[in-house]
Design a protein that fits this description.
Blueprint lengths: L1 H12 L10 H29 L25 H15 L5 H25 L9 H21 L5 E5 L1 H6 L8 E5 L2 E8 L3 E3 L7 E3 L10 H4 L1 H23 L5 H20 L2 H7 L10 H19 L8 H18 L6 H4 L1 H24 L11 H7 L4 H21 L5
Antiparallel strand pairs: 1-3, 2-3, 4-5
């Protein structure tokens, strides 16, 4: 809102200082500061209110160290995160930007699903919470919105740039192409609707999902939207559930998400800048840099939440927070066309997910073969395995954060290591 206000004041009244609001980096910095303040100030008030209402999470007796001390700790703290993301975004972002609109929808959509789940657990005293099929349906719904918007919305395009010589070689008519100046050189560009994404480590760094339907011939073009939407649904469901599983010990999900969010924000800024996109030889996506403002609010919200969620936690985020964080990360990666980097960047979520799948599959397999189920890990998800081995949860979280930072750096390296 403030972006639009100061833009109007600058254009019509030449208001002193209003021009600075056009800079994405300035507004992203403000988003971080405000989200931190919201988390710190209003977070305390919400925690006190949750205490008074006795909104606490049911702690299962799993035989873990320090488990008993967590009884009575308030949950649904994800409301702090959601508020600290949405308020700065609404204040500082360009609200007509299709990518910002998508991120706001994703935040509210999955926040509502997580809130309903926590509400059933806390107020209805049903430990199972919202049925798994309804959670999946909600994630599928968001995947449909994101996939169809990215495919059909006219504002979602990719620019292909050419020098005059390259355009001539390709047989393109420069008179009908857009023009931009880049490092004192005139570049010509075409805008296209695209289902391309970035492939890590390969010299030909782009992959077009349409090519997967090449065997269908001309009919494949008609169903490209369906394939792309199915991929969006799968990614959103997987990452959202991965973050949900990771939220098992104090500060793990929030800290890991902050690292991932910062990385995605920087990738959005690079892809939304013609200068950096040309230098790194990555896709240039117009108007994508605006997502840096949302990413600033996201990172600030996660770090601010750690003020109360770090060991020993004064509040848990619950599904209200964990489903939302995972969904935001998945949608963000899809929007900036870096979803194939998720296995690297979100490696913590991936390993947490796999540890549960492997544990359950092996248990069922050995029970069917020998009549007695066996386990690979002492307990899953894998962070509980390390707890069972006697590691303090604060040490586990810190080491997972270090791994997350390493994976974030590796993600950046993939832009040049091909």
């Amino acid at each position: 809102m403030l972006y639009h206000l100061f833009k109007y004041l600058d254009e019509h009244f030449n208001f002193i200082g209003a021009g600075v609001w056009q800079y994405i980096t300035f507004r992203a910095a403000l988003a971080i500061i405000v989200s931190l303040l919201i988390s710190a100030v209003f977070g305390r008030k919400l925690i006190d209110w949750l205490h008074r209402k006795q909104v606490s999470e049911t702690i299962r007796d799993l035989g873990l160290q320090g488990e008993e001390k967590k009884r009575g700790t308030p949950t649904m703290g994800g409301l702090i995160i959601i508020g600290a993301i949405l308020i700065p975004t609404l204040l500082f972002a360009k609200l007509t930007n299709v990518y910002i609109i998508l991120m706001i929808v994703a935040t509210v959509w999955l926040g509502m699903i997580g809130f309903i789940d926590d509400y059933i657990k806390v107020f209805k005293k049903d430990k199972a919470g919202l049925s798994g099929k309804f959670k999946i349906l909600g994630q599928i719904g968001l995947g449909l919105i994101v996939g169809l918007t990215l495919y059909f919305n006219n504002a979602v395009v990719v620019h292909n740039h050419y020098t005059a010589a390259q355009a001539q070689t390709a047989g393109l008519d420069t008179a009908k192409m857009g023009k931009k100046m880049y490092q004192s050189e005139r570049l010509y560009f075409t805008s296209e609707k695209s289902t391309k994404t970035t492939i890590p480590f390969l010299k030909t760094s782009e992959f077009d999902y349409r090519s997967m339907l090449g065997w269908m011939g001309e009919a494949g073009e008609k169903y490209a939207w369906l394939l792309y939407t199915i991929i969006a649904i799968f990614i959103i469901t997987a990452v959202s559930n991965g973050a949900n599983i990771t939220d098992g010990i104090d500060g793990l999900a929030a800290g890991t998400s902050a690292i991932i969010g910062l990385t995605l924000g920087l990738l959005a800024y690079l892809s939304g800048s013609i200068l950096f996109a040309n230098y790194l030889n990555i896709m240039y996506i117009p108007f994508l840099g605006e997502l840096m403002v949302f990413a600033g609010a996201f990172v600030g919200a996660c770090i601010g939440f750690l003020w109360y969620n770090s060991y020993p936690a004064q509040v848990f985020m619950g599904d209200t927070g964990s489903l939302t964080l995972g969904g935001i990360i998945a949608v963000f990666a899809l929007v900036i066309r870096k979803e194939l980097l998720i296995p690297i960047l979100c490696g913590i979520f991936l390993v947490e997910n796999l540890s549960v799948i492997i544990q359950v599959a092996y248990f069922k397999y050995t029970k069917r073969k020998s009549g007695e189920g066996k386990r690979i890990f002492l307990m899953s998800p894998i962070h509980h395995h390390f707890q069972k081995r006697g590691f303090h949860e604060a040490k586990i979280v810190t080491r997972f954060w270090i791994i997350g930072i390493f994976l974030a750096i590796l993600t950046f390296i993939t832009l040049k290591l091909r």
